[in-house]
Structures are given as C-alpha cells and as structure tokens.
Write a structure and sequence with these properties.
The chain has 154 residues and is mainly alpha-helical. It contains 6 helices and 5 strands, in the order ββααααβαβαβ.
C-alpha cells in the first residue's frame, strides 16, 4: 500500500488536531486583557489557517481582513496571546478521529514523517507531545522556521 511513498508531511491544525477551542481560549484571554470583546469559537474557526499573526489581527478587529488592525495594538496583543496560548496549548485540543491510527500505520511501514505547520514550533512541539504523537515525527517545521511559510509552495 505504501511502496511508492518515501515520506509524508502533515499539517497540524485542522488536519491532525482540532486546536480551535484552545486558540479561542487564548484569543479571549488576550482580548480581555486589552479591554476588547470576546470572540466566539465559530468566528475563530474561520480565522485559523494563515498563521498566528493573522489570527491575532483578525481577532483584534473581529473580521477576516485583519490588515486593518492597528499596528500598535497588534504589538501589544501578540505577547499577550503567546502567553495565553502557552497556558492553553492542549486544554481542549483533540486529535481528529483516525489521526493516531493513520500515523501508527505509516510508522509501522517505516515511512518518515514531518509536521509542517504555520504554528510556531515553540507551540507545535509541546502540542504534539501532550497529544502523544510527537514520536511519530522526524522533524517539526514551524511557521517561523522558513522565510515563506505555508501556503507558499517552497
């Protein structure tokens, strides 16, 4: 079944793990500290996928077009978000059904795997560890590890 596969690269959020509940918790801690209104999980779910900075900007203004977020406010918000997310890295996050089984099958077939994510590696590694799937991956490439993060083809 896997005879022509030489390696598999996995995305993390939205592919292996539903992390939106923890992302939402961290966003709301940040917003509370800034005196801004909370965001609903359903809103946050639509904003995930383009990296931490875009998520923060979108949450600050409550809109998908985060480019309108005030740069000074973003500068204040980012460390607050990072601290809050460090505290919520895997409180509510969960593997999607079948994720562990799929990783186990690939590992049994001795196929090297990597996790390639927009999430900073400082958060991706502990999340993988807390979910008990860190040992499946030969490496983790976070959004800050390369000059052009996903979805750039390089």
């Amino acid at each position: 079944m896997f005879e022509h596969i030489t390696a598999v690269f996995f995305d993390l959020d939205g592919t292996l793990v539903d992390s939106v509940p923890d992302l939402t918790a961290a966003i709301n801690v940040m917003l509370q500290q800034l005196g801004l209104p909370k965001r609903e999980e359903a809103q946050v779910r639509t904003w995930v996928g383009n990296g931490m900075d875009n998520l923060i900007r979108r949450a600050l203004i409550g809109d998908m077009d985060g480019s309108r977020a005030d740069p000074a406010l973003f500068t204040r918000a980012k460390p607050l978000y990072k601290a809050a997310y460090a505290d919520h890295i895997s409180v509510y996050s969960a593997l999607y059904p079948g994720a562990r089984d799929g990783l186990t099958a690939l590992c049994a077939a001795r196929i090297p795997m990597a996790c390639v994510t927009n999430k900073p590696a400082e958060f991706a590694r502990p999340l993988l560890e807390k979910l008990g799937i860190d040992t499946f991956f030969a490496t983790v490439v976070g959004g800050e590890c390369i000059p052009h993060p996903k979805p750039a083809p390089d």
